Amino acid sequence: MTGSGEGHAALAAALAAAEDLMALPGVEGVGQGEDGAGAPVVLVLCAGVTDALRASIPAELGGIPVVLYDIGERPTAQPIEGWPYDDLSEPDFM
Predict the structure, then answer these.
(1) Tens-of-pLDDT digits for all 94 residues of the chain?
(2) Of 63, 65, 60, the residue nearest 35 (C-alpha)
(3) Which of the four CATH numbers 1.10.575, 3.30.70, 3.30.1120, 1.10.10 does domain 5-70 have?
(4) Which of 14, 24, 27, 31 could bond to 62 as cystine, CB 3.0-4.6 Å?
């Protein structure tokens, strides 16, 4: 399927449908990948795969298999003390 125009169209349609999955809690991203044989798959990147999330995501989209990939919990941004300036009112470069 990798080399056919029909396969590319099916993958493009599946990826477009996968964008709707971004609205589900725990879904952090979607993209394309390949299985062990080189066939296309839709990757769904999840911050923890739960039974509820697994039940809400289809096994395939437009005939393309969907693979859940657990990326772990999303880290929260923490300020770095003193970086780059503690006081932005008078930056060193002006």
Answers:
(1) 445 566 788 888 888 888 899 999 999 999 999 999 999 999 999 988 889 999 999 999 989 999 999 988 766 666 666 655 555 555 555 4
(2) 65
(3) 3.30.70
(4) 14
Domain ranges of the chain: 5-70
Backbone conformation region of residue 63, classed left if phi is above 0, alpha if psi is from -120 to 50, else beta = left
**Following CA atoms 47, 51, 55, 57 in sequence, which dihedral angle do they give, to the nearest 10 degrees?**
20
Those residues whose C-beta lies under 8 Å from the C-beta of residue 3, and which sit 6 or more positions away, are none
